[in-house]
Amino acid sequence: MTEPSNATFNSGLIDFIATSPTPFHATREMARQLSDAGFREIDEADHWQLEPGGRYFVIRNGSSLIAFIHGRAPLAESGIRMLGAHTDSPCLKVKPNAKVTSAGYYQLGVETYGGVLLSTWFDRDLSLAGRVTFRSASGSPASRLIDFRAPIAVVPSLAIHLDREANRNRSINPQTDIRPILMLADENPDEFTFSALLMAQLQAEHPGLEVREILDFELSLYDTQKPAQMGLKGEFVASARLDNLLSCYVGLDAIKRADDAQSCLLVCTDHEEIGSASACGAKGPMLEQFLQRLQPDVSARLRTLDASMMISADNAHAVHPNFVQKHDAEHGPVLNAGPVIKINANQRYATTSETSGLFKMLCAQVGVSVQSFVSRTDMECGSTIGPITSAEVGVKTIDVGVPTFAMHSTRELAGSDDAFALARVIQAYFARPQAPGRFETQ
């Protein structure tokens, strides 16, 4: 596979995010690209026979994915070069009884998913996407993905004339203030049902599909503004869901380019923004069960894990020029200065001196600058899938990420050099012949 330029990489990143308004769509797109790159999908319901030199991927819940290259080097000696990211992002999700009628408008009842920066959802052209479960013509339950694509909803701000304190002391009630408007209500409000809307969209996106009854759905609102490379010199990438589809794309691009000399694994799980505690989250058994099926023998599996390492990739907080005081003065990452190693004394990040040292060596190997992030000691620190995976699986781990502004906004901002730089480091990591989890201690 031809090595990409920075511009080519960013173009692919932008297209990937635009195609992935929900974790379901992101997983489907990763599966498509992996299939095109020669990876074979395996089903958890089948018996597995994973052979050295083989390329595989497995999906759980339609929203989490593991891609694996079974290297030709012995697993227990060479280990597995793992990279982890997450497919979900904070958003507004539609409630089961979706239709709300107020003051002559049809609205959607929504709830917040994860740590949403609510103020950024006002006055945006919003669309709707996700998974719909229905009763098929055979009478069995079935599911399909939908994406309205067009801007069909909006959450208008309250005019400042009606809230003179809006610029000084504004609070947002997530129950009452962020219900999106769909359209004007007609004289017969019972004629419009949300189920009928979903049924029509299913049939529009999946011609010939027979839908007897809408059973349930998992739908998210998203901003229809396209991702873009921007800035006076094109030095930024602006998009929704950079946290953390950017890291998913970095891992996807790197594993597609890896050869089969060494064993490499990409795991992209759902539900990180709400704690990862699900069957398809990092706190669930998905990765551990994959490794058990890869190596049923406990001793061989533990030897492999001892030789392995996980890079947990999730965006890092860049120093905001208007809020410099929110950062530790000696640990403030800046955009386009390279990937960030994230460190926390209380294990909110899983980085150790050994895993950090190896990552710094990889950065030097490919000529990429590296930065460090530590939260102010008087501020609470966030976390990632890194500590969870390290604790659940028992693998040495480092937390890294691309520096980002406006995390959890509908429009986040990263440097146009940093994702490509991280991808180059991950490519070197996947190609490393030495066991990444083995360090000299004497």
Automatic annotation (TrEMBL):
It comes from the Bacteria. GO terms for molecular function: aminopeptidase activity; metallopeptidase activity; zinc ion binding. Keywords: Aminopeptidase, Hydrolase, Metal-binding, Metalloprotease, Protease, Zinc. Its cofactor is Zn(2+). One of its GO terms (biological process) is proteolysis. It is an enzyme of class 3 (hydrolase). CDD domains: M18_DAP (cd05658). GO terms for cellular component: cytoplasm. Its EC number is 3.4.11.-. Belongs to the peptidase M18 family. This is M18 family aminopeptidase. It comes from Gilvimarinus xylanilyticus. The lineage of its organism: Bacteria, Pseudomonadati, Pseudomonadota, Gammaproteobacteria, Cellvibrionales.
